[in-house]
Amino acid sequence: MSGPNGDLGMSVEAGAEGEDDGFGEAEYAAINSMLDQINSCLDHLEEKNDHLHARLQELLESNRQTRLEFQQQLGEAPSDASS
């Protein structure tokens, strides 16, 4: 029967041939390479997330400023009309 990590029904003779855990250097190198790629992708996503967060903060501040200016103009408009 085969499990998620390979053949679990390995015979004693196969283990005695020098592969204690069923993985060879090539398998470890492939896993290492995949982990490096995943790490690189996660770093890239983190950078994009940080950039988006900074841009959203700028947009939020800009919207606050615009809203305050708009409120000030609305507050001044009735006094200008009464003059």
UniProtKB/TrEMBL annotation:
- Which portions of the sequence form the region Disordered? 1-24
| InterPro entries referenced in this protein's UniProt entry, alphabetically | BBLN_eukaryota (IPR005374)
Task: Read off the Pfam families from this record.
Answer: UPF0184
- Top-level taxon of origin: Eukaryota
Q: Which residues form a coiled coil?
A: none
- Please provide the Gene Ontology terms (biological process) for this protein: apoptotic signaling pathway; bone development; bone resorption; gene expression; intermediate filament bundle assembly; multinuclear osteoclast differentiation
Gene Ontology cellular-component terms for this entry are: cell junction; intermediate filament; kinetochore microtubule; subapical part of cell
Instruction: Report a single Gene Ontology molecular function.
Output: molecular adaptor activity
This chain belongs to the protein called Bublin coiled coil protein
